[in-house]
Amino acid sequence: MAAASASTDDGSEKVYRVQSYLAQEEGVWPKEGRHILAQYDKNSVVVYQAYCPEIAEYAVEHQR
Which of 7, 9, 21, 44 has the fewest CB atoms within 10 Å distance of its CB? Predict the structure, then answer.
């Protein structure tokens, strides 16, 4: 498992555990149903949300 980091609002750095989609699909997620991908610690919850390109394009164009 690898790590990625990002700056937080207060300027500190947050480290996230990352793993390839295929590796997670093989051994982490249930075989059926919907899934929520998230990581948490005592200070935060980070949730991954996927969406189609049309939604992303609209959000970028309208800054929402």
Answer: 9
Could you give the 3-state DSSP secondary structure of residue 4? strand
The domain in which residue 23 lies consists of 2-62
pLDDT at 64: 63
Mean pLDDT, the chain, whole residue set: 82
Nearest to 39 by CA among 1, 52, 56, 61: 1
3-state secondary structure of 5: strand
Q: Could you give the C-alpha distances from 22 to 17, 18, 51, 64, in angstroms and in order? A: 15, 12, 18, 30
Mean pLDDT across 14-38 = 81
Question: Phi, psi (5° rounding) for residue 16?
Answer: -115, 145
Number of domains observed in the structure of the chain:
1
